Amino acid sequence: MRPPQVLREGTKKTVFVNFMDLCRIMHRQPDHVMAFLLAELGTSGSLDGQQRLVVKGRFAPKNFEWILRRYISDYVICPGCKSPDTILMKENRLFFLRCEKCGSGRSVAPIKAGFVARVGRRNTGT
Ligand SMILES: [Zn+2]
């Protein structure tokens, strides 16, 4: 696993330069990896024109590395034989991890959401 390359953009944004490369290495959909990263960082972000992931806030390369490690252990490595040779499939609204090596399969936890969607305060009682 290559370490994440991270740049600061101004004072309020962080650019994850080799995001797409790491998705390719893990054989995972960038959308899924991005959703996990943003939920774990508790921020929002998007891909720029050069396919780099730009997120709001200041984060160190370590932050990304820890989250990617967790992603790999939750969504890439087979819990049975520890092979990274797995496929993530979506059925209905659930994700399943299927191992190419030992053939085992299991459902994986959906990505938690919430941080990004909570914007501002609601006025209650008026
Ligand atoms: Zn396996």
Automatic annotation (TrEMBL):
Residues 1-105 form the Translation initiation factor IF2/IF5 domain. InterPro entries: IF2/IF5, Transl_init_fac_IF2/IF5_dom, Transl_init_fac_IF2/IF5_N, Transl_init_fac_IF2/IF5_Zn-bd. GO terms for cellular component: eukaryotic translation initiation factor 2 complex. SUPFAM superfamilies: Translation initiation factor 2 beta, aIF2beta, N-terminal domain, Zinc-binding domain of translation initiation factor 2 beta. One of its GO terms (molecular function) is mRNA binding. It comes from the Eukaryota. Keywords: Initiation factor, Protein biosynthesis. Pfam families: eIF-5_eIF-2B. One of its GO terms (biological process) is formation of translation preinitiation complex. Eukaryotic translation initiation factor 2 eIF2 is a heterotrimeric complex composed of an alpha, a beta and a gamma subunit. Component of the eIF2 complex that functions in the early steps of protein synthesis by forming a ternary complex with GTP and initiator tRNA. This complex binds to a 40S ribosomal subunit, followed by mRNA binding to form a 43S pre-initiation complex (43S PIC). Junction of the 60S ribosomal subunit to form the 80S initiation complex is preceded by hydrolysis of the GTP bound to eIF2 and release of an eIF2-GDP binary complex. In order for eIF2 to recycle and catalyze another round of initiation, the GDP bound to eIF2 must exchange with GTP by way of a reaction catalyzed by eIF2B. PANTHER family: EUKARYOTIC TRANSLATION INITIATION FACTOR, EUKARYOTIC TRANSLATION INITIATION FACTOR 2 SUBUNIT 2. This is Eukaryotic translation initiation factor 2 subunit beta. It comes from Rubroshorea leprosula.
